Amino acid sequence: MASIYYPIVLHPADEGGYVVDIPDLEIGTQGETIAECIEMARDAIGLWCICRQDDGKIIPEPNTTSPKHQEGDIVTLVDIDIDAYRRANDRRTVRRNVSLPSWLDIAAKKAGINVSALLVSALKTELSISD
């Protein structure tokens, strides 16, 4: 998946900083600076999207029209590559049963090879995935 761009609205907060709305996803966050707000919004969008994917639900396309906002608000776009976000942040491991010939398992143990680590490395190579 390539980068997608979601509109966000930064509302200046009375106590300083900004409250951030991400209208297309009906979520929000906050930050002290504009740069922090954009980074927090990117993180909120990424987490929301990978949770959606894990639940087998569709990730909505961004709205192409300017979201509702008040005078003094800042409206901008936040880019997110969902696949890259998942690789960077979803570090949980899953257990998979893998079948291999007994003689190969014995040889790997004798050689001190971590089969799980080797499988991860081989899959990344086969799928052209880099960290």
Strand content: 15-25%
How many strands in all? Answer: 4
The helix-strand sequence is: EEEHEHHH
- What is the CATH architecture annotation of the largest domain? 2-Layer Sandwich
Might you state the CATH topology name of the largest domain? Answer: Double Stranded RNA Binding Domain
Span of the ends, CA to CA: 16 Å
Helix count, per DSSP? 4
**Order of adjacent strands in the largest pleated sheet:** 3-2-1-4
Radius of gyration: 21 Å
Compute the average pLDDT: 93
Biggest β-sheet: count, sense, barrel? 4 strands, antiparallel
Provide the helix percentage. Answer: 25-40%
Question: What is the general shape?
Answer: elongated
Instruction: State the domain count.
Output: 2
Low-confidence stretches: none
CATH C-level label of the largest domain: Alpha Beta
* Helical/strand content category: alpha+beta
Would you kindly provide a written description of the structure presented here, covering whatever features stand out?
The chain is of the alpha+beta class. It folds into 2 domains: about 5-90, 2-Layer Sandwich (Double Stranded RNA Binding Domain); about 95-130, no CATH class. It is about 40% helix and about 20% strand. The chain contains 4 helices and 4 strands, in the order E-E-E-H-E-H-H-H. Strands 3-2-1-4 form a 4-stranded antiparallel beta sheet. Strand 1 and strand 2 form a beta hairpin. The chain is elongated. The protein starts with a strand and ends in a 5-residue tail after the last helix.
